[in-house]
Input
Amino acid sequence: MMALLNHPLYQQDLEQIESATFLPWARLAGSSICPSGATGMIGSCLVDAILWKNQKEDFGCSVCVLSRNREKAEKRFAAWTDSPYLQIVTCDVNKKETLAGLPPCDYVLHLASNTHPVAYATDPIGTITANITGTQNLLEYAVRTGAKRFLFASSNEIYGENRGDTEFFDESYSGYIDCNTLRAGYPESKRCGEALCQAFRKQSGLDVVIARLTRSFGPTLQASDTKALSQFLNNGLKKEDIVLKSAGTQFYSYTYSADAVTGLLTVLLKGVDGEAYNVSDSSCDTQLKDLAQTIADFAGTKVRFELPGQTESLGFSKATKARLDGSKLKQLGWRVHYPLRAALQRTLTMLGETAH
Output
């Protein structure tokens, strides 16, 4: 099967990121960037985009990829093996000693986290520690090495349940989370991660920005991902019926991976120190049942209902409406490039033609 980086649609994604006029790319030229979670869905697209820009022009931005699994990282970025701007470092952000020898980098991005239901249910400790211990360790590394800025990738889940008093969550909203549950580990630890960022700003003088991502998807989707949308896409790829494990009335915001990357870069390069930004556009908001039907239509199948398994249900979000207000980030110039239907179709095409 075709390698993702050679796929014309993915190359279009990278070109779209590289040519985004609202991004002040000059601020990254000749600098260095260190992302954790670099083999994940958003992280891998971000790394590809920067190395792609290096290849196209004399950009000179070095990328220090952090990964617990070196073999996985080397396989994912095999196309960039000869790039002098790529360095892969094996480390676990939860273990401070593995960060001791990291080189200084201008920009540190903490993107590593469990981000899907089965992981929340089967690895609740790892879910929490990556967002708290891992965040603290990377913040300390950023301070110790004199980083210009630290970006924490947070989540729409920090808003909790919609209290019924708003249609969209802006950055000041705070809804209910029952902290005494297994499922609370993810949103509560993301909230704590944000609080740690503010603590380091105060006590260490570190420049910090926070990007709150929505439910994201794209061709860099991980095979292990168990989010509803990921399962829908996998069903569609196999030409199977789309399995909906609820009534599907949940109303959520979604973001295509390439647009999530330009959102992250906008926050990193233009965000105000200490501020949080929703990476979201209402044009990509939809109900779960409509999302399922769209993918079924593309695949030529139908939607059917099925009760979730016990492990799955433990990891499910209880939020029934989680639409984010992205106006704050749009004031910095960010715009989505791909409408939801087009993004879903190109995702299915790329996943189907690059699967091994």
